[in-house]
Amino acid sequence: MTLDWTFPLRFVEVISGDGAQVYRERTDLADTGSFSKRTLTLRPSLQGRRWVRLEAWDVACNGAFTQPVWLTAE
To answer: For the chain, first and last CA: distance in Å?
Structure first.
Protein backbone atom coordinates (compact mmCIF):
# COMPACT_ATOMS: atom_id res chain seq x y z
CA MET A 1 0.00 0.00 0.00
CA THR A 2 1.09 3.58 -0.55
CA LEU A 3 0.15 6.13 2.11
CA ASP A 4 0.23 9.93 1.95
CA TRP A 5 -0.38 11.86 5.17
CA THR A 6 -0.40 15.23 6.89
CA PHE A 7 0.00 14.34 10.56
CA PRO A 8 2.61 11.75 11.59
CA LEU A 9 1.22 8.23 11.46
CA ARG A 10 0.76 6.05 14.52
CA PHE A 11 0.16 2.62 12.93
CA VAL A 12 -1.39 0.59 10.14
CA GLU A 13 -3.40 -2.52 10.85
CA VAL A 14 -4.44 -5.51 8.75
CA ILE A 15 -7.75 -6.83 10.05
CA SER A 16 -9.09 -10.17 8.85
CA GLY A 17 -11.59 -12.80 9.84
CA ASP A 18 -12.40 -16.48 9.36
CA GLY A 19 -16.10 -16.36 10.25
CA ALA A 20 -15.51 -17.21 13.91
CA GLN A 21 -12.73 -14.83 15.00
CA VAL A 22 -11.28 -11.45 14.00
CA TYR A 23 -7.50 -11.13 13.72
CA ARG A 24 -5.41 -7.93 13.87
CA GLU A 25 -1.81 -7.44 12.77
CA ARG A 26 -0.47 -3.99 13.69
CA THR A 27 2.60 -2.30 12.23
CA ASP A 28 4.00 0.63 14.24
CA LEU A 29 4.72 3.79 12.23
CA ALA A 30 5.77 6.10 15.06
CA ASP A 31 8.95 6.96 13.11
CA THR A 32 7.00 8.96 10.48
CA GLY A 33 7.00 12.75 10.28
CA SER A 34 4.49 15.27 9.00
CA PHE A 35 3.56 15.71 5.32
CA SER A 36 5.13 12.59 3.89
CA LYS A 37 4.53 9.45 1.83
CA ARG A 38 5.58 5.81 2.16
CA THR A 39 4.98 2.56 0.34
CA LEU A 40 4.58 -0.45 2.64
CA THR A 41 4.68 -4.09 1.68
CA LEU A 42 2.83 -6.17 4.27
CA ARG A 43 2.65 -9.95 4.20
CA PRO A 44 -0.06 -10.92 6.67
CA SER A 45 -0.96 -14.53 7.33
CA LEU A 46 -4.36 -14.94 5.66
CA GLN A 47 -4.62 -18.73 5.49
CA GLY A 48 -8.17 -19.80 6.34
CA ARG A 49 -9.43 -16.21 6.40
CA ARG A 50 -12.60 -15.14 4.59
CA TRP A 51 -12.09 -11.37 4.46
CA VAL A 52 -9.44 -8.67 5.00
CA ARG A 53 -9.33 -4.87 5.30
CA LEU A 54 -6.67 -2.26 6.06
CA GLU A 55 -6.63 0.71 8.44
CA ALA A 56 -4.14 3.57 8.89
CA TRP A 57 -4.23 5.88 11.94
CA ASP A 58 -2.33 9.08 12.69
CA VAL A 59 -1.32 10.78 15.95
CA ALA A 60 -4.46 12.97 15.86
CA CYS A 61 -6.65 9.81 15.86
CA ASN A 62 -7.70 10.32 12.23
CA GLY A 63 -8.18 7.03 10.45
CA ALA A 64 -8.48 5.82 6.89
CA PHE A 65 -9.61 2.33 5.98
CA THR A 66 -10.63 0.11 3.10
CA GLN A 67 -13.87 -1.76 2.71
CA PRO A 68 -13.61 -5.51 3.44
CA VAL A 69 -12.25 -7.59 0.58
CA TRP A 70 -13.70 -11.10 0.42
CA LEU A 71 -11.09 -13.81 -0.09
CA THR A 72 -11.59 -16.98 -2.10
CA ALA A 73 -9.68 -20.26 -1.82
CA GLU A 74 -7.50 -21.17 -4.78
So the answer is: 23
| Low-confidence spans in the chain with pLDDT less than 50 | none
pTM of the model: 0.87
Closest C-alpha among 1, 55, 43, 52 to residue 23: 52
Residue 53 pLDDT: 98
C-alpha distances out from residue 23 to 26, 29, 30, 36, 41, Å: 10, 19, 22, 29, 19
Domain residue extents for the chain: 2-70
**Residue 65 half-sphere exposure, CB side, CA atoms within 13 Å?**
16
